[in-house]
Specification:
This protein is an alpha/beta fold. The protein has 7 helices and 7 strands. The chain has a single domain (33-122, 132-268), classed as 3-Layer(aba) Sandwich (Rossmann fold), CATH 3.40.50.720. Helix 2 links the parallel strand 1 and strand 2 (63-68). The model is unreliable at 14-21 (pLDDT under 50).
């Protein structure tokens, strides 16, 4: 009679060995060319955060396509990215979104990575919601929320149709965790909700969706110029976030290093919006 215990150990060992061969390798941050031959579309790619992300992905071997509304700026920043391709997309127009995404896909035949970095602040300073006007509300919600929604939809449809296991990253704001009386904060609450919803809807197709929520960042949008002080009272660390810091985390989250992070919002804010709610 065979030794049943010994036979069981052999069978279990064989099964474990077979399973181990099917494991997906864990990607190390030391891997060279982390995004080699990948294609990334970055909305707001000529802005401070968007351009910093474009530079970081480009350095990792990624084919970058930047999107915006200003053709002159797009040309200038494309040259800074070694002649990267660019497309015009007006996020307040669904027709422009669909056309722009189609043009971006035509550049390389695919999009593996979408970074939604485009966004606008209020044109005016509001002290409370009693002073908010419809025009400003519509402008901010159309671009920050509706635009992000339909760009993501257009890119995700192509990813699903081509069976691309891609990554989508939404650049939100730490104010998306704060009381939402302003149109800007409301839009960022919406981006947070969309990030969770898109992650749930797209994970079955192998598409990973996450977000980054920066605090006050040293960009021209806040009037920051090279050489200005980074000091701020907006967070407990008393300094502005640098676009390059955000770009480093963005690179990780849109690579296979970030595959086990799903539907999350990473706060790079010095505590604003997490331990410091205003």
């Amino acid at each position: 009679m065979p030794d049943l215990h010994k036979l069981k150990r052999i069978v279990n060992g064989t099964v474990q060995a077979f399973k181990s061969k099917r494991l997906v390798p864990i990607v190390s941050e030391k891997d060279k060319d982390l995004l080699k031959d990948k294609v990334a579309l970055i909305t707001g790619g000529s802005g401070g955060i968007g351009f910093a992300i474009a530079q970081e992905l480009n350095k990792s071997g990624c084919n970058v396509i930047i999107a915006g509304t200003n053709e002159k700026k797009l040309n200038i920043f494309s040259q800074k990215l070694n002649g990267a391709k660019h497309v015009k997309i007006n996020l307040s127009s669904i027709d422009s979104i669909r056309q722009g995404v189609a043009e971006a896909i035509d550049c390389y035949g695919r999009i593996d990575i979408l970074v939604n970095s485009a966004g606008v602040h209020s044109k005016k300073v509001f002290n409370n919601f009693l002073n908010v006007e419809e025009e400003d509300y519509d402008h901010i919600l159309d671009i920050n929320l509706k635009g992000t929604y339909f760009v993501t939809q257009a890119v995700a449809k192509d990813m699903v149709n081509k069976k691309i296991h891609g990554h989508i990253l939404n650049i939100s704001s730490s104010t998306g965790n704060e009381p939402g009386w302003s149109p800007y904060r409301l839009s960022k609450w919406g981006v947070k909700a969309m990030t969770l919803g898109f992650a749930q809807q797209l994970q079955p197709y192998g598409i990973i969706v996450n977000g980054i929520a920066p605090g006050s960042t040293a960009t021209p949008l806040l009037g920051f110029k090279d050489g200005d002080s980074l000091y701020t009272q907006d967070n407990g660390n008393h300094r502005l976030t640098m676009p390059s810091e955000i770009a480093q985390y963005a690179k990780m989250m849109v690579s296979d290093m970030g595959n086990m992070i799903v539907g999350d919002m990473l706060y790079i804010s010095g505590g604003r919006g997490t331990v410091d709610i205003r």
